[in-house]
Amino acid sequence: MVKIKKIIDLSQPLFHNCPGWATYKMTEVNYEAVYPVDGFTAERIDLNVHTATHMDAPFHFFPEGKKIDEFPISQFVGEAVPIDLFGIAPEEPIRREHLEPYADKVKPGDIILLCTGWSEKRGYTKDYYYEWPFLSREGAEWIVEKQLKGVGIDGLSIGGWAEGNGPPAHEVLLSNEVWPLEELNLTKELLTEERWFLCAFPLKLQGFGGAPVRAVAMKFE
């Protein structure tokens, strides 16, 4: 029987008015039933699915692209390599030169996790909302060349906020059906191992261009 030696929750919490993309309506949580009145509690949530830890599907950028429910479930698990980008400057593009030192550590079908330290900044601040480091076009092209299945980042998006910085990475990745996993909680504990087993299952939302995810990294004995 396989035993888990370590398990890390890589997900950011989703809650009423939680941080999210600046132009989206903030998440709302309401109660349709409360225990004192109904004998049970039932909540209703109104959110953009690209909020908190979530995965993008090609349909997010391409009208004819694959929806999140159309991926085979095997695409959501795999070995993941953490990329140490702690200390990277705000709004700095993550380029090929940042990734190339890991070229011998990744193999086709792997996932990489871009650990920039931005998850520690989560809040209603200018730096968290607008200044996270982001994947450049050339960085995305490197990921496609290496035949990786996915890439995670701890900022609000795989692309940047500033005009022109958002689409390139999305377009390169999603046109090749490589999924971006965004707004992860990536801590330095991930750097204690060279490889992890990642599970990142999105909600099975039919016809959607993305979905919230509960992402965990595991190390087996």
From TrEMBL:
Gene3D superfamilies, per the entry: Putative cyclase
GO molecular function, a single term: arylformamidase activity
Name recorded for this polypeptide: Kynurenine formamidase
PANTHER family assigned: CYCLASE-LIKE PROTEIN 2, KYNURENINE FORMAMIDASE
Top-level taxonomy: Bacteria, Bacillati, Bacillota, Bacilli, Bacillales
Top-level taxon of the source organism: Bacteria
Gene Ontology biological process: L-tryptophan catabolic process to kynurenine
Signal peptide extent: none
Organism: Bacillus oleivorans
